[in-house]
Amino acid sequence: MKIFSRRNDDPREVWQEGSKSDDETLMIPPCDIWDTPPDKTSEVNSTPHETSLPIASDKTPSQCWAFLGARGGVGTTTLSVETAFHLAKNHYRQTQSSPKPGQEKVCLIDLDFETGSVSHHLDIEPGLRLEDLSNEPTRIDADLTRSFISRHKSGIAVLAAPNMIGTNLKVNPHTVVAILESACDMFPHVILDLPVQWQSWSLAALGGSDYVGLLSDLTIPSLHLARNKRAQIGLLLERKKSCDIILNKYERRSFGNNLRLPDAQKALQCEIFGTVCNDAQTVHEAINCGDPVGNLRKDSRYAKDSRKLIEKIFEKTKTTLEYDMQELAAPVQLKRA
Question: Beta partners for 245?
Fold first, then answer.
């Protein structure tokens, strides 16, 4: 079971690795992404592989990926939707099956209960209500979580709430964390779309995720915000490396006074994990049709860039999982007195 925080503590207090005492009733959670080995790859969006993406089996721990923006309008929701779509499509292709209600393998969760737009992007009715998010966390189980789910025709399960002013301040953060844990028990892949504004459940969601991508566009204000937010998240999680920078709306050809990739890395003071092209016309068309870009224009630049990014995330999380398993399996070295 993937645990995001202690049930009896504030959700902002993320689990740290340690020894389990006799009076603890919860299991120690699996290693999180902050204990990964350094990434020696410096290339941005390397040549895509021809092989299919791996799929998680029932014996494989669920993969939870979180995306958040340095500021609003950088395309976080669009990329979250696209990521969920490609993961779902890959599963159906490899299992030679078609999307069926109740058999989804990917869950997309909109964690902005006030201004989130996942349901609007996919043109579906949200299934969560304010009263659901205000209930006691002990009520949350698989059956109740399943009743909250909205479904898109592409095979994505969605957890989202209607937009209401002040909702983020009224929900019970412990209930939000309980829903995250329940979803990770139910689905092999969970994608989190986090709000720009920091919420009481933000740190728990990031700490419990296997991958965190921080999106920015190619403007100086956005790059500075991304650098500051990345540094602050790292301090909150007590790790030097916090999350990967993803540059969205990126133009490979620079005209006039436009910033280039080296300029962006200099402003960020770190390497850029991946880029997604600026394909506004295709993205807007997909949003207006209530579809992921890859479902409407599978050969578009945006769909191709998104898939390359997903493949790169898979490679990183695969390395992380292997590293964590090696650490857990390593024999304890006892020093002689």
Answer: 214
For residue 170, what are the domain limits? Answer: 59-324
Distance between CA atoms of residues 128 and 100, nearest Å: 21
Residue 272 sits in a domain whose CATH number is: 3.40.50.300
CB neighbour list of residue 191: distance below 8 Å, 6 or more residues apart: 64, 65, 66, 67, 80, 83, 84, 87, 106, 107, 108, 109
Name the H helices within the chain: 76-94, 118-122, 130-134, 142-148, 167-170, 173-186, 202-207, 220-236, 261-268, 280-289, 293-296, 301-329
284, two tokens: 């807007």
User: Three-state DSSP class for 224?
Assistant: helix
Chain segment 266-318, per-residue pLDDT in tens: 999 999 999 999 999 999 999 999 999 999 999 999 999 999 999 999 999 87
Element (H, E) at 65: strand 63-69
Q: Which SS3 state, helix, strand or coil, does residue 212 take?
A: strand
Amino acid identity, residue 193? D
